[in-house]
Design goal:
Helix content: 25-40%
Largest sheet: 8 strands, mixed
Distance between the termini: 4 Å
CATH class: Alpha Beta
Shape: globular
CATH architecture: 3-Layer(aba) Sandwich
CATH superfamily: P-loop containing nucleotide triphosphate hydrolases
Structural class: alpha/beta
Number of strands: 8
Number of domains: 1
CATH topology: Rossmann fold
Strand order of the largest sheet: 3-4-2-5-1-6-7-8
Strand content: 15-25%
Order of helices and strands: EHEHEEHEHEHEHEH
């Protein structure tokens, strides 16, 4: 299970979750672990239900909604009043044996820690602005503490990859996603960037 995490909302975690999932060769479960800001289903264009909390021991493929031609199965975030068992749902998903990419809440609080506890590794997502980078550094430290070490950082809204980011976050820049007009994932330069990211990461992290 790969956690897509970062300190600031709006940095591109949800786009990276879906873009990377679609770029990987194996059928991937893309799950939303952010009940407060449930964006994945809207970006994917699927129904709000059933959610991650609907697993209840069932195979994810019987609950998740499949995106045509992409091999991605989407599990929307639980609703707020049903989010108490999120940790158990993520554990079930992690034990399912399927490749999983999880869209995490922003920040370094308890909500952000829950999916990191279930994940094997973390992919950080941030813009190059100083506050976002500082918060990403906090997320990186939390991920290491929770045994989901960062394997790389995706920089969004840029084509550059400054070495200072590597020093700050302690992991390589594995992709730079350029600024494009929405819909972002329809742009071929963005899709190519996520295909390169998928090839660089491989599927052993999932």
């Amino acid at each position: 299970m790969l956690a897509i995490a970062g300190g600031k909302g709006g940095a591109g975690k949800t786009t990276t979750t879906l873009g990377l999932s679609a770029a990987l060769d194996a059928p991937v479960v893309a799950a939303d672990a952010d009940p407060d800001m449930p964006d994945l289903h809207a970006l994917a264009g699927v129904d709000r239900e059933p959610t991650l909390s609907s697993l209840d021991g069932r195979d994810p493929s019987t609950v998740a909604q499949s995106l045509p031609e992409s091999g991605v199965n989407v599990l929307p975030a639980p609703r707020i009043d049903d989010a108490g068992g999120l940790d158990r749902s993520l554990d079930r998903l992690a034990r399912s044996g399927r490749p999983v990419v999880v869209d995490c809440p922003a920040g370094a609080g308890p909500d952000a820690a829950t999916p990191l506890r279930a994940a094997d590794a973390t992919l950080l997502v941030t813009t190059l602005c100083a506050p976002a980078l500082r918060d990403a550094a906090k997320t990186a430290a939390m991920a290491r503490t929770l045994d989901a070490p960062p394997r790389g950082v995706v920089l969004t809204r840029t084509r550059s990859a400054p070495e200072a980011v590597v020093d700050l976050l302690g992991c390589p820049v594995v992709a730079s996603i350029p600024t494009v007009d929405p819909p972002i994932l329809a742009d071929e330069t963005v899709r190519t960037a996520y295909r390169r990211l998928a090839a660089r990461l491989g599927e052993d992290l999932l």
